[in-house]
Specification:
alpha/beta, Rossmann fold, GMP Synthetase, Chain A, domain 3, nine-stranded mixed sheet, five-stranded parallel sheet, about 35% helix, binds adenosine monophosphate, binds 2,3-dihydroxy-benzoic acid, transferase, (2,3-dihydroxybenzoyl)adenylate synthase, nucleotidyltransferase activity
């Protein structure tokens, strides 16, 4: 068992087992069963390479043995930062079989995030590509190893330089300790609403349940072909139903190296892709590109859009432009996922963010005092269920705020329930900027900016953006010493912050607007920047 991981109380765990949600299956079992059932079928296509279920199964066994030989033990944390390449799967399933826990970093994370994850989880290993998208991850590994003494092993897909090559670790499979399905399988990252991202412990039992239900709702079977466009380490393309849901259903995963229409459309045509998942800004780009590109996209049955609110206007264009069904997906790495169903009326598809995937998901929409609002009114979404965590890893103080006493997760989302039980996302109460699906925690950026000697105080808020939905604006109060926006942004880059977290705009002001009790009114700041932007836009006409 991993310590400091809140779990479900026994009465709930018993119920979820009795009702058949949790079936005692581990990820190791899942792959073994698929490999014995259809070992020769292709599981993963990436560029010119194809791996069958049988091959993936063997690779996972051989790598698990190699990792074990290297000294990696059950429950050890391993930072996995891999892009959409086949090795991602080999690494995950090897760690799952070993009972070691992947911590899923995103390819865009840089030294600030990687050092934090490594330190916080006391990770023993870090698995990276050599280079990807023009960035050398070995340099990042050197920085992390310098700061975090527990990080003994760096394992590289490709040219390892002074580190260990993943390919050299393969060895004869050995008998490994039994893995328990009720144990934590990996740590997923939250988008973060306070400070740095929180770590989300997901068990084999709860996650595989979410894959089974997702695959069922998305009608996946052995003939399904899922194109992974978003970075697969993210919960949405990983599990809703994503790459793991596709493998659960015995289908085929195609990995897209990049997300642009010019990369993805030829892949859809060549591989006869049936389903893919996008965030709203990307869906918009695809819709705009579709009319001027002449690839055969007729195999595509379902286009999922989620991660941030998809506007109704654009949503309406999906069927007419791409000829496929839109599925809205409103989910979170903490658990709860809502889907519109494939046979829902068009109005439900374009106007709602779906309904909970499981009959055991419990939903409450409440006011500031945790009292249920009337049906149809907007309130805070709380949820509890068989695949929603009961607490973050090593975060007792935060958990006391983020969960109710009876175990409901406070999602931080403002929603309204329709008469037919569908959710419409109306906004967000938590302090987070949703940059087209990339979540930026205001406090994390504020803390970095506060470290700059010229900065007296700072408040980071969202500003409306036609393309991404929201972008970040940092309101900064300076000390006597002057500083420019460019200087502050360069400072953040030097601190190793992921590029999407660098504020899009910096506004210098003398004092912050305040709320009734004297807190900084982020609401007023959001309004002021939105107003400024709209008057600039209007001035253009
Ligand atoms: P994360 O913390 O990265 O797991 O992000 C989860 C959050 O993304 C949710 O709590 C919502 O705020 C937002 N989100 C995800 N999907 C949607 C959607 N379809 N519409 C609106 N917001 C969404
Ligand atoms: O944004 C998310 O985190 C998200 C969106 C859709 C998610 O985690 C999911 C589906 O599973």
């Amino acid at each position: 068992m991993l310590s400091r991981c809140p779990s479900w109380p026994n009465e709930y765990a018993d119920r979820y087992r009795k009702e058949g949600c949790w079936q005692g299956e581990t990820f190791g079992d899942m792959l073994r069963t698929r490999a014995s059932k259809h070992g020769d079928r292709i599981a993963i296509t990436s560029g010119e390479s194809c791996w069958s279920y049988g091959e993936l199964d063997t690779k996972a066994d051989r790598l698990a043995a190699g990792l074990s030989k290297l000294g990696i033990k059950p429950m050890d944390r391993v930072i996995v930062q891999l892009p959409n390449i086949s090795e991602f799967f080999e690494v995950c399933f090897a760690l799952f079989r070993l009972g070691a826990l992947p911590v899923f970093a995103l390819p865009l994370h840089r030294s600030s995030e990687i050092t934090y994850f490594s330190e916080f989880t006391e990770a023993v290993a870090y698995i990276i590509p050599d280079t990807y998208s023009g960035f050398d991850y070995r340099e990042l590994a050197r920085q992390a190893q310098n700061k975090v003494p527990t990080l003994r092993n760096v394992i590289v897909v490709g040219d390892p330089q002074e580190f260990t090559a993943l390919g050299d670790l393969h060895t004869e499979p050995t008998i490994l300790p039994e893995v328990n399905a009720s144990d934590v399988a990996f740590l997923q990252l939250s988008g973060g609403s306070t400070g740095l991202p929180k770590l989300i412990p997901r068990t084999h039992d709860d996650y595989i349940y979410s894959l089974r239900v997702s695959a069922d709702i998305c009608k996946l079977d052995e003939s399904s072909v899922y194109l992974a466009v978003l970075p697969v380490a993210h919960n949405y393309p990983l599990s809703s139903p994503g790459v793991l849901g596709t493998l659960y259903a015995g289908g085929r995963v195609v990995l897209a190296p990049r997300s642009s229409p010019d990369d993805a459309f030829p892949l859809i045509a060549r591989e006869r892709v049936t389903i893919t998942g996008l965030v709203p800004p990307l869906a918009l780009i695809w819709l705009e590109a579709a009319s001027s590109r002449h690839y055969d996209l007729s195999s595509l049955q379902v286009l999922q859009v989620g991660g941030a609110k998809f506007s109704e206007e654009v949503a309406r264009r999906v069927r007419s432009t791409l000829g496929c069904t839109l599925q809205q997906v409103f989910g979170m790495a903490e658990g709860l996922v809502n889907y519109t169903r494939l046979d829902d009326p068009e109005e439900t598809l374009v106007n709602t963010q779906g309904r909970p995937m499981s009959p055991y998901d419990e939903i409450r929409v409440v006011d500031e005092d945790d009292q249920e609002v009337e049906q149809g009114q907007t309130g805070h979404l709380l949820t509890r269920g068989p695949y929603t965590i009961r607490g973050y890893y090593k975060a007792e103080e935060h958990n006391a705020k983020a969960f109710t006493l009876d175990g409901f997760y406070r999602t931080g989302d403002l929603v309204r329930l329709t008469a037919s039980g569908y959710l419409v996302v109306e906004g967000r109460a938590k302090d987070q900027i949703n940059r087209g699906g990339d979540k930026v925690a205001a406090e994390e950026i504020e803390n970095h900016l506060l470290a700059h000697p010229a900065v007296h105080d700072v408040a980071v808020v969202s500003m409306p953006d036609e393309f991404l939905g929201e972008r970040t604006c940092a309101f900064v109060i300076l000390h006597e010493r002057p500083a420019t926006a460019g200087e502050l942004k360069a400072f953040l880059r030097e601190r190793g912050l992921a590029a999407y977290k660098i504020p899009d705009r910096v506004e210098f002001i003398d004092s912050f607007p305040q709320t009734g009790v004297g807190k900084v009114s982020k609401k007023a700041l959001r309004e002021s920047i939105a107003q400024k932007l709209s008057s600039v836009a209007n001035a253009g006409f």
